[in-house]
Amino acid sequence: METIGTKSVTKGRSNNKLSKTIQKVTSLKFASNNALFFLTTHETKAHHHQAKNKNEESKARTRRRAVMEALIARLFAGVTTIKASYAELQMAQQPYNNEAIQKADQAVVDELISISELKKRFLKKELNISSPQVTLMLAEVQEQQSLMKTFGITIQNLQSLVDTKDSEISSLKKQLHEYTAFNKSLEKKLHSSGSLSKFESLHLSALNTTHFIHFLQHTLSSMKSFTKLMIKEMESSNWDLELAAKCIQPDAVFIKQSHRCYAFESFVNMTMFEGFNVPSEPLQKHHNRNLYLENFKRHKSLNTKHYLSAHDPNSSFARFLKSKYLQVVHEKMECSFFGNLNHRKLLKLNNGGVPDSAFFVAFAEMAKRVWCLDCLALSLDEDVRIFQVKKNTRFSEAYMECEAEKVVSTSSEEVTDSDSGELRVGFTVVPGFMIGKSVIQSQVYLSPVS
């Protein structure tokens, strides 16, 4: 019994020791786990706090940058506003506008004060910009408005400059037109009243375009005089001048009734100048310039009636005169003027007989000058070409001049409101001439622009 009791006590003690050992091991393990848990939690909190600080710093930098961008935009907008206000100030100087000047001046001052306040807040780091994005957008709007105002003022200045230049151009054109008309009147007076004595001692080597122009004016003067006499005879014979003018220029529109005379002038001039600068038959094979010049000198001052009576009726000049008379003066016209056809009959006889009416004398003088002008043209070293302007051709001052000044002014006013913007030729009154590179303008009648 004693042996059994000892073993039981020994076994109980062993169990107690094992339990304590297990308890100690368990306690140590639990303590280690708690320490590790507490260490991990502390590191996580520190890392989270550090990330939060970095995020706040990034946001702060972004905001500072946005504030600076808004500040710079506001500054540029202010400068643009000052520029626009200064432009308004200059614009108000001429013409002088006191109210506009004061308004623009105050706008400049207000903007300078605003920029100055902005500078103070920036230096003191007291910029109070709650929403940089809104400030930036407002600054852009202000800048665009100022730019639009500046561009508007620039457009006004340019338009004013254009108006001034247009006014100057109109004034200069008017002066040029007046001076040109005055010079032409002086030239016509000079040529019509000038003496032909300068041609007496004229040599071939000294002959030039100026001599041709001088004698051309002398010739045109006689052609105009004959046309007036022809119209007078028509009126005396109860002709319908309007119908007669329409027969010559069917589509012509005349500003005034008195302008119908240009249709008759056109008919006479074109008929008389037909075949101009074509050598006559006796001289055609031997085109001698000096011979043509001598013919010109010999005939230019002769009495046509006496010359025809005393010289060969088949001479070059006599044949020219007869041919042109039959072309210009129709049978019905001659019969209407004189009641018979004696002028034609006398010329066709070729016996030296010459009609003695004032009408024929005027025609003969005109024919003589045209024939002499032709001789003078054939005497020139340079080729002389005659030209006329076609109907509806655009008016060009380089090659044309208007026969009726009234037509130019009236047509110009109508052209201003028209789409074409061009003056058009109704018909040629006097043909033009080209001598080498020189141009003697054709005289035209301009039809009104519809």
TrEMBL record:
UniProt feature coiled coil, ranges: 155-189
Keyword Nuclease: no
Keywords: Coiled coil
InterPro entries in UniProt: DUF641_pln (IPR006943), GIL1-like (IPR040225), GIL1_IRKI_C (IPR056813)
A Pfam cross-reference name: DUF641
GIL1/IRKI C-terminal domain: residues covered: 386-445
One of the GO biological process terms: negative gravitropism
Domain DUF641: 64-189
PANTHER family given in the database record: PROTEIN GRAVITROPIC IN THE LIGHT 1
Name of the protein described by the UniProt record: Uncharacterized protein
Organism: Arachis hypogaea
Taxonomic classification: Eukaryota, Viridiplantae, Streptophyta, Embryophyta, Tracheophyta
